[in-house]
Amino acid sequence: MTDAAMPSQRRRARLVLILIAGIPLSMMLGATALWWAGEQGHVDVLGSVGTANHGKLIDPPRSVTDVVFQHEGVAETLWQDLPAKWRLLVVQRGENCDAICQQQLYQTRQIHLALGKDFNRVGRVVLSDTAPTAVTLTPEAGQGVAGVSLSEWFAQEHVGMTALTVSSERLSTLVPEVLASSAQWFVVDPAGWIMMRVSDDLYYKDVISDLRFLLKHSGG
């Protein structure tokens, strides 16, 4: 190797080192610029890359861990007294379980069963402002037996369902979305956060896909 070639090789080596050192810096600058653009509303990052969920995320999620519920309309209980599971939460208001209520109970039961090996990692809850013994099934849905109480129907068709009751005012603060439309139910994570709402018209296989994604990427 000649002495004349040495400076040229040193320059190339320095250039390679500069390029290598510049990669992390350029990534940091790019990430900062993307974050700033997202904050300013110039770029919709989530809309551009897509998300895994088909249901609508609750932002921010709402905690139910500080709420004192009536369990089965009688005993006081906290959410954390229940086994730590993902929960499919159906909201029922008033003294009648109408067609929408009955369809949601049926839909969540079938989705729960379809989870297969993950069945035991998920539970179902009906959250109401009325004790289940005082709620009556209406005849128009064709899902249940008209005139029977909700608690009786649970014993017949929805074994394992947990019925929790709160005041009407508290129910409205926990799930205000149902004030606009009752045709939706919710997903609660094992830590007690209401984190997703599911429209009744969402394709059931998409709901199952959401739940399997959540179960796969969580330890609870």
Main attributes?
alpha/beta; 220 residues; 10 strands; two-stranded parallel ribbon; 7 helices; elongated; eight-stranded mixed β-sheet; Glutaredoxin
Structure write-up:
There is one protein chain. The chain is an alpha/beta fold. It has two domains: 5-46; 56-216, Glutaredoxin, CATH 3.40.30.10. Helices cover 40% and strands 23% of the residues. The protein has seven helices and ten strands. An eight-stranded mixed β-sheet has the order 1-10-9-4-6-8-2-3, with helices on both faces. A two-stranded parallel sheet has the order 5-7. Helix 3 packs across helix 7 (204-216).
- What is the overall pLDDT average? 82
* Beta fraction: 15-25%
| Number of strand segments | 10
Over the alpha carbons, how many angstroms does the gyration radius reach? Answer: 26 Å
Order of helices and strands: HHEEEEEHEEHEHHEEH
The CATH class designation of the largest domain is Alpha Beta
Specify the helix fraction band. Answer: 40-55%
Largest sheet at a glance?
8 strands, mixed
Name given to the CATH architecture of the largest domain: 3-Layer(aba) Sandwich
| Global outline | elongated
- The figure for the number of domains is 2
Structural category: alpha/beta
Instruction: Give the strand line-up of the largest sheet.
Output: 1-10-9-4-6-8-2-3
Uncertain residue segments: 43-51
